[in-house]
Amino acid sequence: VQLQASGGGLVQAGGSLRLSCAASERTASRYYIGWFRQGSGKEREFVATLRSTDVTTYYGESVKGRFTISRDNAKNTVYLQMNNLKPEDTAVYYCAMGRTVIISTLRNAAAYDYWGQGTQVTVSS
After folding, report:
1. Are strands 3-6 and 17-23 parallel, antiparallel or unpaired?
2. Which of 34, 72, 78, 120 is 20 to 30 Å from 55 by CA-CA measure?
3. ∠ CA(52), CA(55), CA(58), 5° rounding?
4. SS3 sequence of the chain
5. Could you tell me how far CA 34 lies from the centroid of its own chain?
6. d(C-alpha 83, C-alpha 107), whole Å
7. What is the C-alpha to C-alpha distance for residues 7 and 119, in angstroms, rounded to an integer?
8. What is the full per-residue pLDDT of the chain (125 aa) written as tens digits?
């Protein structure tokens, strides 16, 4: 499976962006697909993920209430709507998919098997 992330850019604080992650093929019925981010000099951080079977969503504490993850099955695409962006949201955002992810590991990047190339999000103050 190949993942193609897009939609990053430069935005002012308080603004919005929508990231897209297109999968090259329809995968097995059960998987988690979501987003991580990595700021300069920082470790990769969990942002949000979605469970394919029932579309349950999970969010990192720093983005809860501002970001929304969703999917369009017909397009094999997952979106990350980011509202009320802050300078601390500046990072490279990666989409990732995992077929063996479980609830206890969904925030762990090592649990995901496939990764997109990353898209830069820069929020100016």
Report:
1. antiparallel
2. 120
3. 100
4. CCEEEECCEEEECCCCEEEEEEECCCCCCCCEEEEEEECCCCCCEEEEEEECCCCCEEECCCCCCCEEEEEEHHHCEEEEEECCCCHHHCEEEEEEEECCCCHHHCCCHHHCCEECCCEEEEEEC
5. 4
6. 21
7. 7
8. 999 999 999 999 999 999 999 999 876 679 999 999 999 999 999 999 999 999 999 999 999 999 999 999 899 999 999 999 999 999 999 999 999 999 999 999 999 999 999 999 999 99
What's the CA dihedral at 81, 33, 105, 107 to 10 degrees? -20
Tokens 């500046």 sit on residue: 90
